[in-house]
Amino acid sequence: MSLAHTAAEYMLSDALLPDRRGSRLKGLRLELPLDKIIKFVTVGFPLLLMSLAFAQEFSSGSPFSCFSPSNFSVRQAAYVDSSCWYSLAHHKQDESGQYQVKSLWPHKALPYSLLALAVAMYLPVLLWQYAAVPALSSDLLFIISELDKSYNRSIRLVQHMLKIRQKSSDPHVFWDELEKARKERYFEFALLERYLACKQRSHSLVATYLLRNSLLLLFTSATYLYLGYFHLDVFFQEEFNCSIKTGLLHAETHVPELITCRLTSLSVFQIVSLSSAAIYTLLVPVIIYNLTRLCRWDKRLLSIYEMLPAFDLLSRKMLGCPINDLNVILLFLRANISELISFSWLSVLCVLKDTTTQKHNIDTVVDFMTLLAGLEPSKPKHLTQPMHDEHP
Fold first, then answer.
1. Fewer C-beta neighbours within 10 Å, C or N terminus of the chain?
2. Could you tell me the pTM of the whole model?
3. Beta bridge pairs of residue 241
């Protein structure tokens, strides 16, 4: 019999999780995987396109060329190029003979508008980093630590029960004390549960997360407006008429009013415009899906931890509207599932619990581990029968 007790003690010792008080879980993921993808695309893609625009300008030279008259000197031709690039305006004569001026400045502002877009898309990331990450980091450190500690407490409780059962000469006394402890809820460790219930009534994290994704949608909408209003208007404008009767050439009588210039970088402008519209169009449903995740609970994680004696948020139906900080924390616990060592243990116990023949007697990890350690999860029938005989 002592050999069986020794084997049970070894089994319970192996089930204990290592103490991690020395490490502060420095590998915590404080951004969800989908948020990281959105960040890299919304910020990195405009920077990539900006590099493409600058690379084209450096490799091909000037992004436009003007067809100066053949009798112009080198100085005059250089002045025409600089003047037309500075003004970058298309002069078009209407039916009444008046000239209408159409600005082509989006071609000139293309790299800088992409830089401004990247900076704007990084603002929601900064908001999350400074407004939510410090509190979220503290919450995750505490909850992960308490979840693992609650599991360890359950295992140590079974170890203690096993020792008491070995030392108890009267089995009736042991089972009476055990049933009394369960009725008085001595096995519960309510700190974690109350902390999570408190987070259910808090809304600072979820408000920051909603604001972050709402800003992304707002900046994406602003990008559409910019592309549609400014880029679409000059999207097919490859040639333009430039007025050169200014400055150095103002008094020259042989100089024509307008000369024709050609935008050599129009293809790059079109590629940047189309690819920006396509990428941000694909990102919109991803951002919306990110927001819809806050409208439902991740009950799988909670159901696994229902095996802990101190954790019955689901069974007490404490989960109401999912738009609160607790739901955000659950999403990040799922992202940091590798840091939750107790999760894998409890997942295995949940699977084994569903295959055992005594399902009605097993509610928590304490019940299951007492069964594995050789104890009944409830008072054996041969001990309850005499009690019924004495008290009909």
1. C
2. 0.81
3. 260
